[in-house]
Task: inverse folding
């Protein structure tokens, strides 16, 4: 499965950059041309979309993934989900015109506080490496550092025939501990609002909580804290609206998911996780390691698998989805947002997420 090779794909390095022949004319290469020459290979192609350097990954069954390099946003994931020749389906929801203004998709949120108290977030990614062990597994490694360069951050995006994976590795080369808040959040497309749900969270504790702020997120804290307009069901006492709160240490802020299917047609913003007070105990129940989206409109489902993260975030726009286009979407993914990860000097922190399917 994808998770087995997520951190272990270390293959021969791509051939070094070929020297250009000297001539009287000077050839100026674009960033994407330089990257293509250095890291490009079968299944890994660098190009530009609206002057934004991108890389497209593809495997033998023609499943594909497109990644914007500078901000690390996966703007497209099209796996093969039907046996017919054109049996591909776009999983991610984005808005924008193909340049740096694109929002949605799937991205990494990584925030911290420097020793001087200033806040920072991972950004301005550059290509570190590109690997493939066959035409059935390809990956690109991006890297960046924090303000004082005490943290070495690697972001790995991988594609397989039936899955895609994202992983982050943070190495603390500084002399002080660092607190990290992180999440891998994806905007998943649905055919209809009525048929959107998630399975696999029954029995898990959750609290209402705003989403992580990010440059690519469609759901803002303000939007999610404002409830949907009341429907006719609310006048019958059947409203499913809930208040979004940040009082995560209050016992009354927590509930337990009783339903086999978590319905996502109404606006909600939740974190499924063990309450912070429970994590102080020697033994406590964690959130599930995986859950599955259900789209009754398309009949497709995708499993989201978390590794290294403690929380699961789920947000749905409800009636607000109309301002983002005709299709419905949710925002979901693995995260460490309630309790920061503490990375000691010389320490390393790893986390990953896999989106896989067995629709074939």
Result:
């Amino acid at each position: 499965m994808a998770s087995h090779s997520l951190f272990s794909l270390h293959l021969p390095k791509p051939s070094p950059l070929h020297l250009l022949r000297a001539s009287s004319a000077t050839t100026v290469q674009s960033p994407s041309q330089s990257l293509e020459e250095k890291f490009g290979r079968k299944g890994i192609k660098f190009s530009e979309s609206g002057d934004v350097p991108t890389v497209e990954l593809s495997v033998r069954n023609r499943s594909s993934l497109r990644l914007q390099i500078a901000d690390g946003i996966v703007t497209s994931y099209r796996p093969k989900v039907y046996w017919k020749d054109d049996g591909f389906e776009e999983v991610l929801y984005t808005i924008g015109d193909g340049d740096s203004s694109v929002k949605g998709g799937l991205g990494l949120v990584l925030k911290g506080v420097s020793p001087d108290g200033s806040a920072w977030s991972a950004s301005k990614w550059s290509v570190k490496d590109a690997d493939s062990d066959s035409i059935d597994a390809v990956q690109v490694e991006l890297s960046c550092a924090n303000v004082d360069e005490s943290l070495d951050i690697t972001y790995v995006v991988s594609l397989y025939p039936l899955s895609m994976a994202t992983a982050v590795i943070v190495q603390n080369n500084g002399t002080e501990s660092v607190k990290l808040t992180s999440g891998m959040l994806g905007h998943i497309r649905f055919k209809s609002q009525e048929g959107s749900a998630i399975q696999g969270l029954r029995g898990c504790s959750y609290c209402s909580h705003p989403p992580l702020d990010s440059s690519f997120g469609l759901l803002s804290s303000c939007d999610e804290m404002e409830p949907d307009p009341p429907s006719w069901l609310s006048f019958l006492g059947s409203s499913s609206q809930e208040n979004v709160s940040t009082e995560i240490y209050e016992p009354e802020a927590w509930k337990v998911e009783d339903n086999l299917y978590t319905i996502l047609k109404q606006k909600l913003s939740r974190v499924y996780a063990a309450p912070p007070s429970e994590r102080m105990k020697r033994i406590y129940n964690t959130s599930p390691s995986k859950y599955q989206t259900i789209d009754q409109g398309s009949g497709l489902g995708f499993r989201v698998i978390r590794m290294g993260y403690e929380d699961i975030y789920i947000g749905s726009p409800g009636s607000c989805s109309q301002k983002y286009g005709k299709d419905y979407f949710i925002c979901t993914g693995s995260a460490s947002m309630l309790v920061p990860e503490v990375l000691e000097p010389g320490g390393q922190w790893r986390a990953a997420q896999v989106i896989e399917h067995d629709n074939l």
